[in-house]
Amino acid sequence: MSSLVRHSLALSRRNLRKSLASPGQVLDTALMPVVLSVIFIYAFGGAIAGNSADYRQYLMPGIMALNHTIVSRTAGIALNTDFSSGVMDRYRSMPVARSAVLIGRVSADSVRLLISQLAVFAFALLIGFRADNGLLPTLAAFGLLLLYGIALCWVNAFIGLAARSIDTVQSVSTIAMLPLQFGSSVFVAPNTMPDWLRVFVEHNPMTLVVDASRNLMIGGPVAASAQGALLWIAGLIAVFLPLSVWRYRART
Amino acid sequence: MTPAIRIENLAKNFGSTAAIRGVSLEVPAGRVLGLLGPNGAGKTTLVRMVSTLIRPDSGRILVHGHDVVREAARVRPLIGLTGQYASVDEDISGWENLYLIARLFNLRGRKARARADEMLERFSLTEAGKRPVGGYSGGMRRRLDLAASLTGDPRVLVLDEPTTGLDPHSRNSLWAEVNRLAGQGTTVLLTTQYMEEAEALADALVVIDSGRVIASGSTAELRARLGGQMLRIQPEEPGDLARICQVLVAAGHTEAAVMADEGRIQLPLTGGGSQLTAVVRTLGEADIPLASLDTHIPSLDEVFLKLTGPAAREPVAARSAA
Asked: For a designed S-S bond to A160, which of A23, A80, B142, B163 qualifies (C-beta 3.0 to 4.6 A apart)?
């Protein structure tokens, strides 16, 4: 094994240990999707879709993607904290590849994304969601959602490395995630929206990922949305990974 | 022999602020150099450049002959850095902290675990090792930080204000550890604001202020050069200060100076005992009533304040340039 792989693994383990030790992070990722799904299905579901059962089928894949917009924020927050606590000074004064720190961060976050994705799916099953379209398409949806979460990690990593203070990181990442969360097809179908908003919503990466995942799980056309989703994911990583590396190197 | 650290004409600016302006110094292998200066003098900037964390604007730094910019990858295995704030992970255990560092130094499996155990033991942290660092005292954190810096067996240890904020007991045990390391041949570059710390640990001192070296040498040399024995004369009547000074200058003691704030005359005794006798005779002949007459050797803290105080800044810089 090359030292880059070993260092990345060691740092990934450290990041996961820290996540486990921080009740805030665990609660944030487990509780938020649960609360949101309960409110939307039972309070708004009837108004939006006529009845809660139909709305549940519509909403739950979107909640899985929404969950990733929350879980991925940790990438930026943790990198920023590591710089301000001085821990990063230690790593950077040691014979450790620069990229190992970033790889260790995003790989740990990928594990967190996967675990929380499974947890949200289990909760969805518990309240009656059914992935009727079969196992393989559902697994494909899992893969797509995970890739999307990883792309969001790189966006957040860049925010965490570019902003000086942790307060700035928190507010910028909240604002950056808002249009994904609410300007998309997660809660409401775009065809109910005014034209100007619908154009935005239909091209939103969140909409494409959610539509593709939803249809993979409960049935429906997939090709166009999946293609758009993969293009977005590739594009986000192609832009934000190098930007993060650049900020990481330039940061003092 | 190649020095452990060699710094040549180093300069670093942050925007329009000059943090380091032309510093040169050398630390021979196995020696402890104390870098002394007030807040904002440039100590941390210098240490960060030696540790490969930031790049110099001009000049260069060699660590055991390797350039910190061009050969950073060869410098990093040689140095261990303990920064100004204990840079350890609070929410995981002390053992996990050290295990991670051991893994990053390419120790595997059992060897990494053994190294973490060994370092905990050496710094008396075995008992606390399984607990999260968040519950450690300041002294324990510092020890863990130092343990982490030493996990890779560095030849050069860089300590940035290692005892700031520590209680006297923790400070003493940290000093003992640094002295032990120095005894084993580890080169140490240490920054501090405290003369006492520099004297306890360092073989040689470099005093920096506003990014420049304003004095250097051993503690004894610095004290001798900058603060020899001083005669202090206090008249009963402050109104007599000027007259005493005139009398002394007229008698050839031209360095006599009125310290109006303190209500006394100060005269450096460069001529030893015979000068003292001559001064006493002159004062006797002038027949001015005196409240006190004493000699004083400045403490190193006074030397330090004198060197770095805002009032002293310009003349001292001129003196060291001369």
From this structure: A80
pLDDT per residue as tens digits for the range B153-176: 999 999 999 888 888 888 898 899
Please tell me if residue B84 touches chain A, with a CB cutoff of 8 Å: yes
Tell me whether A103 touches chain B (CB under 8 Å): no
Residue of A nearest to B90 (CA): A18
Considering chain B, what is the average pLDDT of its residues? Answer: 87
Q: Please give the average per-residue pLDDT across B79-96, as a whole number.
A: 89
CATH classification code of B229-296: 3.30.70.100
Q: Which CATH class is domain B5-224?
A: alpha beta
Does A90 contact B at CB distance below 8 Å?
Answer: yes
Yes or no, beta carbons of A90 and B103 under 8 Å apart: no
With an 8 Å Cβ cutoff, is A93 touching chain B?
A: yes
* Mean of pLDDT values over B176-197: 90
Distance to chain B for A26, nearest Cα, Å: 14
Residues of chain B with CATH 3.40.50.300: 5-224
* pLDDT at residue B318, rounded to an integer: 36
Chain-chain contact of B106 with A3 (C-beta, under 8 angstroms): yes
pLDDT of residue B92: 94
Task: Select the residue from A5, A79, A85, A94 to test the B interface by mutation, using most B Cβ atoms within 10 A.
Answer: A94
For residue B114, give how far its alpha carbon lies from the nearest alpha carbon of chain A (Å).
Answer: 16
In three state form, how does the secondary structure of chain A look? Answer: CCHHHHHHHHHHHHHHHHHHHCHHHHHHHHHHHHHHHHHHHHHHHHHHHCCHHHHHHHHHHHHHHHHHHHHCHHHHHHHHHHHHHCHHHHHHCCCCCHHHHHHHHHHHHHHHHHHHHHHHHHHHHHCCCCCCCCHHHHHHHHHHHHHHHHHHHHHHHHHHHHCCCHHHHHHHHHHHHHHHHHCCCCCCCHHHCCHHHHHHHHHCHHHHHHHHHHHHHHCCCCHHHHHHHHHHHHHHHHHHHHHHHHHHHHCC
Count of beta carbons in the 10 Å neighbourhood of residue B39: 8
* Cβ contacts of B76 on chain A, cutoff 8 Å: 93-96
**A5 and B CB contact within 8 Å:** no
pLDDT digits (tens, 9 = 90+) for A188-242: 888 888 989 998 999 999 999 999 999 999 999 999 999 999 999 999 999 999 9
Is the ipTM beyond the 0.95 threshold? no
Q: What is the pTM of this model?
A: 0.81
Of A13, A86, A96, the CB nearest to B83: A86
